[in-house]
Recover the amino acids of this structure.
C-alpha cells in the first residue's frame, strides 16, 4: 500500500510539470519528423537522452552531419547546469545504486524544482523516483505522439523549434520573480550572451554557455571562500 501511495502522490506532484511537457514534446516530435528523421528517433531521443533543450539542438546537429566531438561539447555546455543542481538535489535520500543512477539521469529542471521545495524535505526514495519516472514518461509520450502526428502537420507551420526556448524564457521570468535578491545570475547570463555575440558571433551558443558556466563557477568559489572566512 505504501508503494502505491507514494506512486499516487508522485503522480499528483508531477502532473503540473508533466502536462507542460506534453505540448513541448509534441512540438519536438513534429519538429523532428519535419527535419527528415524517422518517428522512432523522437522516442529514442526522449528515452535515452532526456534533455529537452539539447534534443531540439540535436535534431539540427544530426541533420547537418556535425562531427561527434562538436555534438558532445554542445551537450556538455547545454546541460552543465545540472552540475550545479546536484549541489542541492536530495540525492542522499535516494538509496540503491540503480536508483541513484536513474535519479541522476532523470534530473530535469522540473524534477529539481519539485524535489527541492520546502514541502519535499521529507520525501523518501520511492516518491522522488516515482516523480522523476512520471516526468520522464510524460516527455517520452509527448515526443512520440508528436512524431506520429508529424505527418498530419503541414510543413508551413513555423516556430516549432522555438517551443523549448519559449519554455525556458517563462521559467527564467518565474525564477527571477521568485528570487529578486539573486540579480547577479540573470545579469551574468545576459552579459555572457552579449560577450559571446561580440567575441565569437559564429559560435554564439557554445561561447555563451561556456562564459556563463565559468562565471557561475567563479561566483561559487568566491562565495565559498567568503563563507569560510566569515
Amino acid at each position: 500500500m505504501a508503494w502505491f501511495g507514494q506512486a499516487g502522490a508522485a503522480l499528483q506532484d508531477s502532473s503540473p510539470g508533466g502536462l507542460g511537457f506534453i505540448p513541448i514534446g509534441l512540438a519536438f516530435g513534429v519538429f523532428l519528423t519535419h527535419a527528415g528523421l524517422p518517428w522512432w528517433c523522437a522516442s529514442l531521443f526522449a528515452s535515452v537522452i532526456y534533455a529537452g533543450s539539447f534534443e531540439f539542438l540535436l535534431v539540427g546537429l544530426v541533420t547537418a552531419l556535425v562531427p561527434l566531438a562538436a555534438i558532445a561539447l554542445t551537450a556538455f555546455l547545454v546541460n552543465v547546469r545540472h552540475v550545479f543542481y546536484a549541489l542541492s538535489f536530495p540525492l542522499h535520500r535516494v538509496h540503491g545504486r540503480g536508483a541513484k543512477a536513474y535519479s541522476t539521469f532523470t534530473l530535469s529542471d522540473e524534477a529539481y524544482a519539485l524535489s527541492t521545495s520546502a514541502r519535499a524535505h521529507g520525501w523518501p526514495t520511492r516518491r522522488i523516483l516515482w516523480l522523476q519516472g512520471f516526468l520522464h514518461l510524460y516527455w517520452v509520450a509527448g515526443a512520440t505522439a508528436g512524431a506520429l502526428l508529424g505527418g498530419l502537420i503541414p510543413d508551413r507551420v513555423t516556430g516549432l523549434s522555438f517551443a523549448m526556448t519559449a519554455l525556458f524564457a517563462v521559467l527564467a521570468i518565474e525564477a527571477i520573480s521568485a528570487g529578486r535578491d539573486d540579480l547577479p545570475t540573470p545579469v551574468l547570463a545576459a552579459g555572457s550572451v552579449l560577450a559571446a555575440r561580440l567575441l565569437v558571433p559564429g559560435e554564439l551558443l557554445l561561447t555563451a554557455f561556456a562564459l556563463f558556466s565559468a562565471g557561475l563557477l567563479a561566483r561559487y568559489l568566491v562565495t565559498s571562500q567568503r563563507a569560510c572566512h566569515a
